[in-house]
């Protein structure tokens, strides 16, 4: 009976290891952790989200005596302390695009696909790793922004705690909002495969599309605006709901559908197209 030689074992072992989802996930963790763009993007997210929320809360406290009665009646301390997250969403979008578009730019995508012939597995690993990292960072940023913002909203300015109505929902929803936007950006990066073009498409989705819809007749714009990521984000962090917007839970479901569609198209094209 012939026995397996040492050379044969050496050839077979790396194949079995590289092709498992666990091995691909470990590889993607290493990529995300060692890329400078990861630290820069998360750093910008933290500075923008926490810094601008703190600045807004501080300015509100210092100028509260000049605020009119109508504005005081509709003031939302929860939204005030989370306002910086809306600026941090751009940093998350850029990182989401770079997670895959950078590999196409440098040509390392060929090595990745050579190591993982099942291309769908490579994309799934990227989704798991990037989605998990973004969710954790997003929740931490939202929580820190909330606490710092509320600490700066000093009496007589109204403030809130995590036990206040809708406060915990807004903080948790904000982290989910950032995570889903990051996954949408990841899908766009895989579909377009060009960093600048994918980032432009992402920014257009957040900034340009709302302007276009706002120019339409109000009957049409009110129905369409609720589907915009920006409107969904505002409904998540706002205690006073806009009658034209989705509820926070429905809005997150709509945003999740966007992410699933973007990543589904990305997976289909990744399998069909050449690297």
Describe the structure in your own words:
There is one protein chain. The chain has one domain. It is 79% helix and 0% strand. The chain is built from 13 helices and no strands. The chain has helices at residues 6-18, 21-34, 36-62, 69-73, 77-82, 85-106, 109-115, 119-152, 167-192, 195-214, 218-225, 229-237, 248-272. The chain is globular.
Fraction of residues in helix: over 70%
Query: Count of DSSP helices?
Result: 13
The arrangement of helices and strands along the chain is HHHHHHHHHHHHH
Low-confidence stretches: 1-18
Number of domains: 1
Entry summary:
The chain has helices spanning 6-18, 21-34, 36-62, 69-73, 77-82, 85-106, 109-115, 119-152, 167-192, 195-214, 218-225, 229-237, 248-272. 36% of the residues are buried. The two termini are 44 Å apart.
Question: What key phrases describe this protein's structure?
Answer:
275 residues; mainly alpha; 79% helix; globular; disordered N terminus
